[in-house]
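Case 313 in the screening queue. Each case pairs one protein sequence with one candidate compound; here the compound is glyoxylic acid. For every case the pipeline is the same: read the inputs, emit a complex structure as tokens, and attach any notable structural observations.

Predict complex for case 313.
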Amino acid sequence: MPAIRIRHVLITDDRGDALATYLAARRSDLDCRVRTASTLTESDPQWADALVAFATPVALKGSSIRWVHSTGAGVDALLGTTRWPDQVTLTRTTGALGARMAEYCVGHALAMTQRIRQFHRDQRAGRWAPIEPVMLKGTTALIIGTGSVGSAIATQFDALGCSTIGVSRSGLPTPPFNHVHPVERLTNSVSEAHWLILAAPLTHETRGLVGVTVLAGCQGTVVINVARGGLLDTTALLDALDTGRVTGAVLDVFDTEPLPADSPLWRTQGVVITPHVAGVTHVEEAGTAFLTALTHLESGRWPPSAVDPNRGY
Ligand code: GLV
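Case 313 output:
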């Protein structure tokens, strides 16, 4: 690829000021302009060579932007629904996201097997009510997505003595998963799962993937979603919780964020809600990933963090 020169960097991430400070301290030749959704002007995309963002939609067509760097691992909100311009490179930040999400998943799974919430309630009520915790060891985690995040989650469940089944497009064996099934087998595979963990990017192929059909195959499964709300059909989840096919749900991501106050999820028994915190990217990680990709682009090399906009990851 031809080398590109980047001077003007438009930053629309929520932590834009901190990112601009991080970049300026390391590359004084970069001119960073921080904008929010409300301060972004029509001339900003005409000024910028590069955009650093998580979700704010910026019209790329007709702009001077040749590179977009995502401060997150998921690029669905940047890709949007319009065709991605061929001349614009898209890169992303992965950082320690997998390790963080893995601790989140294991932490919530253990909170359930150890009945931590129940014992908190009992303590507050001054109630002595023994219920034997069950072991996480020996249970099966079915993880949708066998990329860096899914693999990190599998590693932690494996370390605790669980079986891990990955679900991917190809179904090809991928360490550290004990088995990998192709996505076509998801509905059959789900009956084996104690934990159904969503860790795949949101693309046109994964949108609504976990819906009525897949959830109908669950047999007392706990669903953990650290991917994107769009992978999981909320109405189907509520029905599956109602029938007991799904016995619990740990949800960190939602179709609309913040989760609206009138969402029934807030009040549904067995649902744990967290505000999109399972895999927060730190400013230094986003900054380092940007600078690494910049070095590649400036020397005409394809950055390893590049995303295929057609595939969506
Ligand atoms: C978080 O949601 C990310 O995509 O990094």
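Case 313 observations:
- The two ends are 20 Å apart (CA to CA).
- The chain has a mean pLDDT of 97.
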